[in-house]
Amino acid sequence: MAPLMFLLFKPSFDVPFSPYCVSLLLNSSAFQIFIFVLLSMASSSESRSRGNGKPHVLCFHQDLAPLRRVKVQGPTRGKCFYGCSHWHNSCGFFKWADEEDRVQELQFLLFERDTRIAELEILIKELENEVKNLKETNWKLEDDVAEMAIENTEQLAIISSATVDKKLYNLLVASWVLFAIVLLLLERGG
Question: Which of 9, 14, 52, 153 to pair with 125, CA 20 to 30 A apart?
């Protein structure tokens, strides 16, 4: 029965059916109502083509509910109704024959609403997981940035140290050159 539902029902937005979604739909009362509506619609469309042209109505047992007439005295005397054919084990089904039947339409609307709610709950869970993953990624990136900052500080210290060493070396070489010039000048002048 479950594959039938997925052939007939297409969600209003593209969400892959996860096992969670399938279990949520199969365990919901909305799914049971949907199946009931499908069976009722299928049985009523099949039954109209049988013989006398009168619609056949199924009770909750999914058996043919016979058309009967009220025989007791009162305001409904003579009015036709459908009732469960199992009077000894009745399912409680009752429907006036001339009553406009909006029950199936309302049940289907209820099913659509419940299905939409289930779709949105699934979408919320997926978005919550995505937010969780993004937060974890953000934390990892913050850790990486902190590590890079430490590495950069260490490299700057090494570069600064090397620069100072190079300056000191250049200063030492310059002082030796200056010392050599001063010695040469002293030897020539003196």
Answer: 9
